[in-house]
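Everyone, carefully examine this protein record:
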Amino acid sequence: VADGTPGDAHDIFGAAMACLHGELGAAGRGGGWVLAYFSRLCSPRDVPRPLRPLPTYRLPRQLPGLLGALRGSPPAPRRCRGRAEGLLHRLLE
């Protein structure tokens, strides 16, 4: 809050969602926004309904896809995706 006192987390989340909703609406169909979540912390059902149309990446499994989206490159061919996911799995072990 502006005066430095902690605010209610729900108020802060609601305000952030309102800003995002306006931004996403102005950008039209996501406008370059993506959403990433950690599979051990939440599920796709936990994504707020207004954010569900965005391209969504489940981490760490879909990290190669997220990195490609952030670079602006097209998705990797299926044969490459499996290799990248295997390498990522070994790196994270």
